[in-house]
Amino acid sequence: MERERAVYRDARWRAVRERLRSTQRWCEFCSAHEEEGARLSVHHEPALVTILNQGLDPFDPSFLVVLCAPCHRAADDAQRERRGTRWDPR
């Protein structure tokens, strides 16, 4: 879990996240648009833990998608289900 947290504290994460959010103004799953009130965030696909376990670059934009809040929750739930893990609020 600490490896994942370290990614989100890294300046490279903030830079790539802001770059994606500044150019992608809609959800890549449902097309909800920021101008219509959608809260957008950046999501790792595959899961960040998978990316790290495979020695891949967690800051590579090809592993990132912009999602609205409901789609981000659904994607996180699906990733946890595939891994057989439960949500950990830490």
Throw out a few tags for this protein.
90 residues; mainly alpha
How is the topology of this model organized?
Layout: H1 2-9, H2 11-23, E1 40-44, H3 48-53, E2 64-68, H4 69-83
Antiparallel strand pairs: 1-2
Protein model, in words:
The structure is a single chain. This protein is mainly alpha-helical. The chain has one domain. Helices cover 47% and strands 11% of the residues. The protein has 4 helices and 2 strands, in the order ααβαβα. The protein has a two-stranded antiparallel sheet. The relative contact order is 0.19. The mean pLDDT is 91.
How many DSSP H or I helices?
4
- What's the overall geometry? globular
Mean pLDDT: 91
Number of strands: 2
Q: State the distance separating the first and last CA atoms.
A: 9 Å
Structural class, from helix and strand content? mainly alpha
Question: Gist?
Answer:
The chain has 90 residues and is mainly alpha-helical.
